[in-house]
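Thread: Newbie trying to understand structure tokens

Hi all, I'm a second-year student working on a class project, and my supervisor (Dr. K.) asked me to get a predicted structure for one chain before our next meeting. I've only ever worked with sequences, so writing a 3D structure as a token string is new to me. If someone could post the tokens and maybe explain what I'm looking at, I'd be very grateful. Here's the chain:
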Amino acid sequence: MKESSNKQWRPFTANCCSAKDQTIFGNFSRCRPSKTELSKNIAPLPSFRKLSFSDVSRSSSMRIDEDLAGCLGPDLYDFQLSELRAITHNFCSNYLLGEGGFGTVHKGYIDENFRQGLKAQPVAVKLLDIEGLQGHREWLAEVIFLGQLRHPNLVKLIGYCCEDEERLLVYEFMPRGSLENHLFKRISLSLAWSTRLKIAIGAAKGLAFLHSAETPVIYRDFKTSNVLLDSDFTAKLSDFGLAKMGPEGSDTHVTTRVMGTYGYAAPEYVSTGHLTIKSDVYSFGVVLLELLTGRRAMDKSRGKTEQNLIDWAKPYLNSSRRLRYIIDPRLAGQYSVKGAKQIGLLALQCISVNPKDRPKMPAILETLEALQQYKDMAVTCGQWPPSPKSKARNGVSTQMRLQARQNK
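---
Reply by user tm_fold:
Sure, no problem. This is what the structure looks like when written as tokens:
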């Protein structure tokens, strides 16, 4: 199985690129593997139009622009490369938000005079590292899906650019970046329990929306780096390059080349290539565990028995007494005991080996929303810090206490 992006996302603060710098377009890392082709028949979803790859010509960038504009309507803007150069100061590295296997993302600002009907706002401009037809299809998939899908928990695509060999996407700017950065980067303050729950609920709403259509959309790459956060920590799903239309009629699954990210992909999908909405549910369960423990799905820097989050955490999830030993120590006991127990059990259901045993996203969302009422903080219930007796059994208690002290 290949990862969707081998290159870790990282922010930049380097000096500004000059207008003559050929690396702006020419020398991006080409580490992203090819992805399987999305379904050629994009079935109608609630409140948006039918559009397929066959509707969009591959003959020239001018023809593609005409086809997209005709199919997607006036809500999506067709930008010129010169316009996007201008709002990002020629893709200046001082405006670089980050870099991944797909290319780079720069911050820009659109004023009220930029385009008629487009409000003044900051934007994120993704400059894709195109490599052959597959790279073009990844760009096209994002335009087709996000150009038609509109939901508060999906990142809004404002427009696109298809000029010569360049492929760019323009999104609403998400000021708090990715969930991955907040959970795993040392520069970030620890997310509060209520914020983690809010993020989980928002992400669940996004997936539930995708799955709710007559022909559901399977996201296929649900992970912390694809969950972006706005100023009030509302979660929005981004990057639809791997998204695929689900099975139709009597079909139970779609069969496709296995793509995704290590640690998040459902086992039956990895072994057979059979993809269903329950594949997304499995990935959601992994992210729930990351929110609960503060650990990555896969972490090669840890000991052998702790590198795979599911393998390490699973024995603790069905026991409220043992669960506290794997709760993120940066929470320092500021989490709901009942809420954590329910999330542990919910995650356990989501990562079930049998897809039929996994709940559907509406049921998951209902469970998560009910947890917002709980105020029984572990630190006031005598359940934090975990008892020293746990050290001999699991070896995590000492480390947890040390980290908790550092966060006080």
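A couple of things are worth pointing out once you decode it. The CA atoms of residues 319 and 341 lie 8 Å apart. The longest helix spans residues 193-211. Feel free to ask follow-ups in this thread.
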